[in-house]
Design brief:
The chain is α/β, with parallel strands linked by helices. It has one domain: Alpha/beta knot (3-Layer(aba) Sandwich). The mean pLDDT is 90.
Length: 156
């Protein structure tokens, strides 16, 4: 199981997601350009001392990420408010790459179109979306529950 962040623009959320990845033994990918330098103090503070415990791959662009993914072969599972299927109804695989878009704009249509699945986390009527770090925690939690990947591999 892996998490990919498409051009993240809030350093605190990115740091929180990377801390989640460290704790659950999930690899992380940052698809550049990010909206902040990785030396940002908010990024470092929210990631705490966990950032050296997560395997982070930075991709210079969407094109570079797609070239890597072509070799890796994992399914790309996009979490989006425009998703057509509830994430709880999706069958996850241990090799899935869970993709989350920019907090301010999601992902472009061209990125959404190449996703193998476009999932939504339902929220109350009249509300737009969850915080991306909360959405990532819910998504990876369900994916790990289904697959037993990550930290769960040796804990059962």
């Amino acid at each position: 199981m892996q998490i990919a962040l498409y051009q993240p623009d809030i350093p605190q959320n990115t740091g929180t997601i990377l801390r989640l990845c460290a704790c659950l033994k999930v690899d992380a990918h940052i698809i550049e350009p990010a909206g902040f330098p990785v030396s940002d103090r908010h990024f470092r503070r929210s990631g705490m001392d966990y950032l050296d415990r997560v395997r982070i791959t930075r991709h210079a662009s969407w094109t570079a990420f797609e070239a890597w993914r072509a070799q890796d072969g994992g399914r790309l599972v996009l979490f989006t408010t425009k998703g057509s299927r509830c994430y709880l109804d999706h069958g996850f695989a241990p090799t899935d790459i869970l993709l989350f878009g920019r907090e301010s704009a999601g992902v472009p249509d061209a990125v959404a179109e190449v996703a193998d699945a476009r999932l939504v986390i339902p929220v109350a009527e009249g509300l737009r979306s969850l915080n991306v770090a909360m959405a990532a925690a819910m998504a990876v939690g369900e994916a790990l529950r289904q697959t037993g990947a990550g930290i769960l591999e040796n804990s059962r």
